[in-house]
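Archive entry: two folds, one per protein. Generate the first.
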Amino acid sequence: MKQDHFSRRRFFFGTAMAGAIPVGGFGSVASLKRLGYKSPNEKLNIAAIGAGGKGWSDINGCKRENIVAFADPDDRSAARAYKEFPDAPKFKDFRQMLDKMEKQIDAVTVSTPDHVHGTAAMWAMARGKHVYCQKPLTRTIWEARELTAAAAKYGVASQMGNQGYSNEGARQCCEMIWNGDIGDVTEVHAWTNRPNRYWAQGPEVVPHEEPVPANLDWTAWLAGSEMRPYSSVYLPKKWRGFPDFGAGAIGDMACHIMGTPNMALRLTAPTSVECVKQEGKSQYTFPKQSVIRFDFPARGAMPAVKIFWHDGLNEQPKFDGVPDGELIGDSDVNGSLFIGSKGLLTTGCYGERTRLVPAAKMMDYKFPPQLLTRSPGHYQDWIRACKGGEPSCSNFSVAGPFVQWMLLGVIAMKYEGRLDWDAQQGRITNNKEANQWIAPKFRKGWKFAG
């Protein structure tokens, strides 16, 4: 039986939300007025930390503002951005850029390998700069906690680069589940083909020492990580497979694919995580394939739920009760399936094309009344927040807690058996050794706050 409109609104906005992770539209509002701005129409001065690869698309998403500086240790990777903005000062080391141009910068984009995200974002926020940080926000749980607290402390606007939180389909999924359309959700599966076709990981990947290319400042690229010889197995984009630099397929795709379940099921923190399957275990990289289980307790009216993450797939997975071809997915094999007491619901990578399973159920389906605000666009969402508008959909008060539970899966791949998690203490309680991976170790000169 469906809840009436009033009941559903109270379910989301009322006392049932106490202690829950906020969803887009909640949280403190950063005000540009205190920085001397007079109007939301005034342009931001944005500096890019990381100008190549994903950095290029992040710059393009913000280029209606003023792009005033770049920091990138790889001239070849950043070449396209440098050509597009020839007058913007260019640095190899983001610390130097922030020190020299602090007064000329209002906000930064952080589009670097995962191991630099936390430090770069913290250095910027400590100087009062708004931050757009690519997923997975940070490489470690401790860093995610620190960034969440820092965004509130410094009163800056923030956004993680998981576009699904701005997607119409993801918000429709929330409203369908809150409307009771598939009943109580007790199990979710999320999957990706990563790392297949994108980067190599497994026992055959070994980092042999090679000369550093002339276009690369290797020391600046390593940032706070332990010094080691350069190897072409790390660059470009291959760093994701190495735990010292990236968070593997989880870091690449789980922020997208598990974002919709995180929002729709109002997930807080799991009680445990376990890597229930892995193939191709390696000394240097993540395994070739893994299945990870997260167990979450009941949340208000929502029952306990188990979330399964599958990576390294070559084709869409198969589930009982789901006819072939019924899962939402794309050419990259990314998607999710919600299993409820009354039915099934599937979504794509970013929550797009959300629908009931089987698809025939959508022929006469009427979407429930809208409960969530809609995004003006992923980058515009953050820019609006920087200029005093409502907080962005995936601001750090939302992204930080989400990333913390997601990164537990990275630790789980290192151990056999279940890891029990105490979210309040930020500790794994049944495996003391596993706690060494919660926080990073910084090389001298790369302390976390600037």
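Generate the second and append.
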Amino acid sequence: MKNSSMNMRFFIHTLGCKVNQYESQAIREILVGAGFKECLSKETADLYIVNTCTVTDKADRESRHWIGTFHKTNPKSKIVVTGCSAEQDADNISFLPGVAYIIKNADKARIADILNGIIGSKLLPLSITDFKGHTKAFVKIQDGCENRCSYCKVPLVRGALSSRPIDDIVKEVRALSDKGFKEIVLTGICLGAWGKDIVPGDVVRASGLKEPSIVDVLKAIDGVGGDFRVRLSSIEPLNVTDELLEYMAGNVRICRHLHIPLQSGDDEILRKMNRPYRSSQYKAIVERAISRIKDLAVTTDIMIGFPGESNHNFKNTIDLVKEILPARTHIFTFSKRPGTDAWDMVQSEDHAALKRRFYELQTASFGASYLYRSRFLGRKLDVLVETRRDKLSGWLCGYSDNYIRVQFQGDDSFMKRLVPVKIDDVSLIRTLGVC
């Protein structure tokens, strides 16, 4: 397939996390730079790139679904499968109809050379200059995970910690700011662990050096000119340090928002999950963060149905949610992943009980969100307006720095701008404003 890129039309479909979305943008820029042409419609593509996710069984099924859909759409096309499902399930994926290439995460930067049959090319780090189709731009600052949660397959497919150099991060942020992006979201597989592989902990302890941290990244970005704000994506509880909170509290550019995964509010389940904290520690971290940063929004992830979770264990999770009152909660159900410690654990098959738990937790999370958002009635928040209107109301919508989704009436000229909006009405599921 050497020198085949001329006029070849490609279409990218991305599943999963912000890191995958970032890497799809990098792939897009690599292919366009090599002479490929991106399709606006999947029906006209010669080449499909499926950037897969494997965090749940559902994600694996969705990856296979899209591979099949693209093959049916254009049976003569070639399908490239990359991303996390391709890391450990390449043999099975390779037999799916239409799959011509399987590209591991580490080789994503070489995608154009692989498609053109070029062997032995130099592997360069992924980078971006734009973020097509997004109001916010994601910047990947690290890869790999230091945790070994018993339910999670991600460390198996993403590997060891790898921190991106600060100079590269700053250069990319500057380019995205120059493109007019008003919000930069720093993302990674284990975001708060940035820097731990640069100077190992034993070296820090022996030498007395300061351990590099994500605060060093934030300080460097603060030197970039431009009118934009910075948001941290998901950060593990033990990475929410006093240093980070102090810096966030003193810098108006950093969004007043921390997404801190909880997973369970029960200590027995946390131990089985191999999470490195207990419920009282998590509560103390949240309380410390809220006390340090005025109007901070804490959002979280909670898993239901982990093997062995009893009604008593689940009640402890509900009770903790009612104590910490997260501004938003993402609820998901345990999914057995091959290769993880939880693979052999006995899982409850009582789907009716799981459904009841889901709705009970959802009710508690809606109530917590309502209480948080109600504090801002009559106050103005700077909202970054999305380029798509709310599907139901047709109103403009966007997010404040403390992650409140606000809807308000206005014309399209507000899109992609930071607009001061007065919060006028709050319900369990909506926040309405007036510009």
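Annotation attached to the second fold: The CA atoms of residues 107 and 123 lie 8 Å apart. The mean pLDDT is 94.
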